[in-house]
Amino acid sequence: MGNRLMDTIYMTAASILHSCLWYDHVELYVDQIGYDFLSDLPCDVTLVDFDKNAELWMKPKLYAIQDQHQPFVHIDNDIFLKKNIVFEFDRVLVERKDIGFHNYKELVLFFDDYSQQLKFWNNELKYAWGCGVLGFNDLEVRDDFVKCFNELEDILTTHKEEFKDFKNSRDQNGWYLEPGLLLEQYNLASLLAVQRIEPSVLIQGEAHDEQSSYANELGYAHLFGASKYHPKNVKKIKELLKEKFFAEYKKIEEKMAFAEPTLF
């Protein structure tokens, strides 16, 4: 989608600032570029040297998840909490049930050739757990999730040429194979199924319309995929920041003005 750094900075600021309205302890994990723009936000800002891997775009989340020493909820930076949502759950909290198996079935086919020895692997699921919101009260399950992610990433790294050939050989019907979806969301579903853990689900329903209606009532908005960079949404986020969080918006604007042109 091109360089969307500026849009991402504004979006992240809006997401964080909404969270800061409702919760006492908010922590943002960023790389150096993000830190340069967002370090003045009214929360803890932790600088981490993330791997730069566009194919595994969700991997930085693993840094934040591994770094926790007590029960926590992780929220992606394209999520906006318009109300104080009480995150009550037993062992694991997920955002929603993702029944879009067409996003996973080709990936499951590829990984199945290399994952039979993995105790957590289950190739029969027809769903995954959405991880836009992901919480762990049971840190042992968190550790298992991270371990499984790393094992699947090792498979992808070891067999990167085979995966490249696999992608080129598939009739994708317009769908782009995103291994990150399997490493994160299908991985979690497989692990919890094998461990017979039924997670708490924040957004109820299975059909997209049903989930969207429930989320709206809850005061929850998630800009999925490329929708976050639709001109309408980019404009709305910037206007929201300016109207609701003017001081923080102004600081970011000033930093943008002095940033190196190569960043954008």
TrEMBL record:
InterPro entries per UniProt: DUF6734 (IPR046621)
Ranges of residues in domain DUF6734: 14-254
Name the UniProt record assigns to this protein: DUF6734 domain-containing protein
Domain of life the protein comes from: Bacteria
